[in-house]
Amino acid sequence: GVASGGGGRSWNPISLATYQQYFDVDTADILARLKRAMSPGSSEKFFGGEITRPDLYGPFWLCTTLIFTMAAAGNLGAMMSFQPTEDSRVFTYNFSKLTVATSVLYGYAGIVPLVGWAVSKWMFSAPFGLIELICVYGYSLTVYIPASLLCVVPIEIFRWLVVAVAFGSSVRFITTNVKDVVMGQLDDQKALGVLVFVGLLHAALSVFLKLYFYS
């Protein structure tokens, strides 16, 4: 799960050494984590077996990769479906897609876990771990990278289907990894409400990405 586990270490937010440990991963570590995040239908927790600690390297590069693939694929998809008109005879690239992708994806992957961690510190006796939660949310975006490339195909129903499948896989990954902390400390009704809210936030992200980049 993603419960806080400090291991007795002191936390110094202005020390580089505090964050260095979370970037100390190799290719094999990243591949194992990507495989775990991309296992549709799996009820296996992210942290377990060969994955024993969170990292920030994977989430950072996953967000960065998704930003560029969404912006590039969104423009390519728009170019493929472009129809010249009197006012617009030549297709022009929309570079604002890159800016918006950067703001939305870095914001979502950073702010949502931060808020979730802060609320859990207030509500739970055993709150989420902040780095663990950022790690889970970062790796949950893995499936959107192939989805962003598939959405280049200029067929609306196919694009919605791809986004729906990506959302389903991604939100299952998140809820699988947060539900133990939530359900272990709240009654069933409140726990369900929290998990539904998590799902709705993720659905809002998915719908926004579809409508903004592939419409």
TrEMBL record:
<keyword id="KW-0812">Transmembrane</keyword>
<protein>
    <recommendedName>
        <fullName>Protein YIPF</fullName>
    </recommendedName>
</protein>
<dbReference type="GO" id="GO:0031267">
    <property type="term" value="F:small GTPase binding"/>
</dbReference>
<dbReference type="GO" id="GO:0000139">
    <property type="term" value="C:Golgi membrane"/>
</dbReference>
<dbReference type="Pfam" id="PF04893">
    <property type="entry name" value="Yip1"/>
</dbReference>
<feature type="transmembrane region" description="Helical">
    <location>
        <begin position="125"/>
        <end position="145"/>
    </location>
</feature>
<keyword id="KW-1133">Transmembrane helix</keyword>
<feature type="transmembrane region" description="Helical">
    <location>
        <begin position="56"/>
        <end position="78"/>
    </location>
</feature>
<feature type="transmembrane region" description="Helical">
    <location>
        <begin position="98"/>
        <end position="119"/>
    </location>
</feature>
<comment type="similarity">
    <text>Belongs to the YIP1 family.</text>
</comment>
<feature type="transmembrane region" description="Helical">
    <location>
        <begin position="194"/>
        <end position="213"/>
    </location>
</feature>
<feature type="transmembrane region" description="Helical">
    <location>
        <begin position="157"/>
        <end position="174"/>
    </location>
</feature>
<keyword id="KW-0472">Membrane</keyword>
<feature type="domain" description="Yip1">
    <location>
        <begin position="46"/>
        <end position="206"/>
    </location>
</feature>
<dbReference type="InterPro" id="IPR006977">
    <property type="entry name" value="Yip1_dom"/>
</dbReference>
<dbReference type="GO" id="GO:0016192">
    <property type="term" value="P:vesicle-mediated transport"/>
</dbReference>
<dbReference type="InterPro" id="IPR039765">
    <property type="entry name" value="Yip5/YIPF1/YIPF2"/>
</dbReference>
